[in-house]
Amino acid sequence: MSSLSQDELAKLEKIAQQVRVDIIMMLAAAGSGHPGGSLSSTDILTALYFSLMSVEPGNTNYQEQDRFHLSKGHGCPAWYSVLARRGYFSEEHLATLRQYKSLLQGHPHAGTPGVEVGSGSLGQGLSIANGMALANRLQNNPHYVYCVMGDGELQEGQVWEAATFASHYKLDNLIAFVDHNGLQIDGPVKEVMNLGDVAERWRVFGFEVREIDGHNLDEIIGAVEDLKKLKGKPKMIVARTIKGKGVSFMEGKVSFHGVAPSCDEKAQALEELGGI
Predict the structure, then answer these.
(1) Structural domain tally of the chain?
(2) Partner of 251 for a Cys bridge, out of 80, 102, 232, 244, CB 3.0 to 4.6 A?
(3) By the 8 A CB rule, do 13 and 263 touch?
(4) Who contacts 5 (Cβ-Cβ below 8 Å, separation ≥6)?
(5) Is the pLDDT of residue 56 over 60?
(6) Can you give the CATH number for the domain in which 124 is found?
(7) Considering only CA atoms, which of 68, 17, 22 is closest in space to residue 43?
(8) Predicted TM-score (pTM) of this structure
(9) 3-state secondary structure of 146
(10) Does residue 238 have a pLDDT over 90?
(11) Residue 1 lies in a domain
């Protein structure tokens, strides 16, 4: 359980619901994008930016605040919504997703306020977060580094090189998440390349691990608060999630990995989310 009151959790749930509405509106306007993984990571990002992280919108010196990297860059609509509603840029920009010269491209880039490093090929994010965490330690910087990965990208070998690095250097200022929704672009993760017990894998690589419901804000916040008390190990939170969470016809459907909603689907999704 977290340290938050029921009223505080209710406020966060309302924000997460608004983020889901934003995602549907953004993708429908763009006519392209990735709804499934954006919706599955919404609660994690909401908890981080509105409760857990020490951040200063408008301050481009990221060394003076907690740092975040979205390794699963295709899930950026959720991140963009959270950044806008946290005050990094005007919410009006959300309607420009994927447009030419927009601040909000199809994958994160450093030209977007609040984005320190762009997201490249899947599997690179933990390496980037490692560098940030080690730099903070060398500079006696007390701030934390957070990273969110998808479960499909755990099939990349670079992830496990980065895991070895984090464990070897005992990066206890690193808190990473796996958005474990069980689906990737080609189908179920278990069928594409089975990862086995994901939590146990991270334990074997020397991480302190927590397994949670990735849509339960109380569990998300409680896990981070608990892990911050522990020293000497990097931390991993395996968050069990549902791809397309919050929209009935998208939930658990790999077909909505990278397909924007049609006009009719947009209307149905917004009705379910209370956005109209």
Answers:
(1) 1
(2) 244
(3) no
(4) none
(5) yes
(6) 3.40.50.970
(7) 17
(8) 0.97
(9) strand
(10) yes
(11) no
